[in-house]
Structures are given as structure tokens and as C-alpha cells.
Design a protein that fits this description.
2 domains; Helicase, Ruva Protein, domain 3; 5 helices; mainly alpha
């Protein structure tokens, strides 16, 4: 799954590269571009994954208790609602 996300990011970045290079003459080694894009994609994924892991344990417990659900469901609700406790509880209530 992570490898698929990296490939999607690389494709997006390559599309931007081609748009930016349109009309300009320059030469780059494709391997170099590919390696740089792979590093950028990995950095982006690392940032995204660390944001997802920053859910506060107290928030998870509060949502789980208030909505009477498991810790896993509370975590899912918080992720879907970008960490908003009230929205997470409301989402679980429906």
C-alpha cells in the first residue's frame, strides 16, 4: 500500500515537472529525477503518517467512552474527522 502511494506521488510530481518544463529546453538524467522524486514522495508519506499517529490518547479514550465503541473505532472516527472530537462522536452516532 505504501509503495502504491509513493508511485502515485511520483506520477503527480512527474506531471508537474513536464508542465513546468514545457517550452524550456533542458536536459536531466531520468534516473536522477526519478531518485529525487522517490525521496520527495517518501518524505511526504513520512509526514502524512506522522500526522496520523499524532492522535492524542486522551482524545481516543474520550471518544471511545462517549460513543461506547472500541478504541479502534474511536481512532478511525478521529482520523476520518481530522482529530475533531465532537465530529468523531457525531460520526459514530449515525
Amino acid at each position: 500500500m505504501t509503495e502504491q502511494k509513493i508511485e502515485q506521488i511520483i506520477n503527480i510530481l512527474l506531471n508537474y515537472q513536464y508542465k513546468l518544463s514545457d517550452g524550456y529546453q533542458y536536459y536531466v538524467y531520468e534516473d536522477t529525477v526519478s531518485n529525487v522524486l522517490r525521496e520527495i514522495a517518501q518524505s511526504i508519506l513520512t509526514a502524512i503518517n506522522s500526522e496520523e499517529q499524532e492522535l492524542n490518547e486522551m482524545d481516543i479514550k474520550l471518544v471511545a467512552d462517549q460513543a461506547n465503541v472500541s478504541r479502534e473505532r474511536a481512532t478511525e472516527a478521529l482520523k476520518k474527522n481530522k482529530g475533531d472530537i465532537v465530529d468523531a462522536i457525531m460520526w459514530l452516532s449515525h
